[in-house]
Amino acid sequence: MSDVLVLGDAIVDFVFGGVERYPDPGEEVIAPTYELRPGGSAGYATMGLAALGLCPSVTAVVGDGVLSTHWLEFLETRGADTGDVRRVDSEPISAAVAFLHGSDRSFLTYRGASGAGRPVDPGAYDPADYDALLIAGFTQAPYLWTEATVELAERFDRAGVPVALDTNRSPGDWRPTFETLLPSVEYLVINDEEARWLADESDLSAAGHALVDAGAGTCVVKAGERGCLLLRDGTRRVSTDPVDAVDDCGAGDFFNAGFLDARLDGRSLEVAAAFGNRCAREAITRFPVREKLSAIGSIRDD
Ligand SMILES: Nc1ncnc2c1ncn2[C@@H]1O[C@H](COP(=O)(O)OP(=O)(O)OP(=O)(O)O)[C@@H](O)[C@H]1O
Ligand SMILES: [Mg+2]
């Protein structure tokens, strides 16, 4: 069994599914489905890794209210170690309202505790205790935008423990840390829009290669129903069976969990990418998070 240290954002997601249209100011619209989820990229990736039978330890920042307790307990019940999650009393846990509207998603987020946390202490984590480090939702977690995160990633990289980074795309002053981090990152796992934007290059393949030239070992570009691209020496597409998503919240994080699991299991980049595609597809065709996780767990048992 592998241990993955997950750093990132803890967010409680209030997900409203099947929304026909967004409410106008002053108006009420009724949603046919709803779920409160202990998510954020770190939350989704951690529960995905645990569903696959790994032993993730998560480091994030939460508040001291009941929603923070719910976030922690949900992940602990799934088999994750939350001992390093810090609780602050100045802010509640980050919260987001997600509207699922056709194939569109919109979020309204309050950053709360993720914006109030202190930097990680790089000395607190011995790379020898882990098989991988996953930095998830980097642009959503301001406490990570410091030299301390770079130092932690460098220590893991030097020890030969792979570092995976998923930025997502959220506003803030994180780019200098991102650029310093890249040389320690073995797997930069981002989506197509993020790749173009991070590299400031409209051609996707050129964007991925620019990020590899900037230091990333392999750039894995998630591309929705087209699967993903692997960019290292060349460009390889790993396609998937397109489906109509009922809920693609966390799709990228469940992909990351599957990709890392397969890599830690010694699989090739292509096989790991195909497994990431499959985990994400199982997740997005179901609404309740418990059903997503049991579907991911069953493909691992195949
Ligand atoms: N319609 C679809 N059919 C099949 N697979 C899909 C579909 N949409 C997404 N996926 C799978 O989910 C993966 C991640 O989705 P996407 O490319 O949207 O990443 P992302 O933008 O990082 O996700 P997130 O919004 O969770 O951050 C894709 O690489 C693909 O494997
Ligand atoms: Mg993403």
Descriptive notes:
- With 302 residues, this protein is α/β, with parallel strands linked by helices.
- It has one domain (3-301): Ribokinase (UDP-N-acetylmuramoyl-L-alanine:D-glutamate ligase, 3-Layer(aba) Sandwich), CATH 3.40.1190.
- It is built from 10 helices and 14 strands.
- The protein has an 8-stranded mixed beta sheet. It has a 4-stranded mixed beta sheet with strand order 3-2-7-8.
- A hairpin with a 2-residue loop joins strand 7 and strand 8 (104-110).
- The chain is globular.
- The relative contact order is 0.14.
- The model has no long low-confidence stretch (mean pLDDT 95).
- The structure holds adenosine-5'-triphosphate (ATP) and magnesium ion.
What's a concise summary of this model?
Strands 4-1-9-10-11-12-13-14 form an 8-stranded mixed sheet. Strands 3-2-7-8 form a 4-stranded mixed sheet. The protein is built from 10 helices and 14 strands.
Largest sheet, spatial ordering of strands? 4-1-9-10-11-12-13-14
In the predicted model, the low-confidence regions spanning at least 5 consecutive residues are none
Q: What's the architecture, going by CATH?
A: 3-Layer(aba) Sandwich
| CATH topology name | UDP-N-acetylmuramoyl-L-alanine:D-glutamate ligase
Instruction: Compute the average pLDDT.
Output: 95
Give the CATH H-level superfamily: Ribokinase
Rg, rounded, reads 18 Å
Helical proportion? 25-40%
In sequence order, what are the helices and strands, one letter per element? Answer: EEEHEEHEEEHEHEHEHHEEEHHH
List cofactors, ions and other ligands: adenosine-5'-triphosphate, magnesium ion
Broad structural category: alpha/beta
What is the general shape?
globular
Distance between the termini: 17 Å
Q: What is the makeup of the main sheet?
A: 8 strands, mixed
* Estimated share of beta-strand residues: 15-25%
The CATH class, by name, is Alpha Beta
- Oligomer state of the chains in this structure: single chain
Structural domain tally: 1
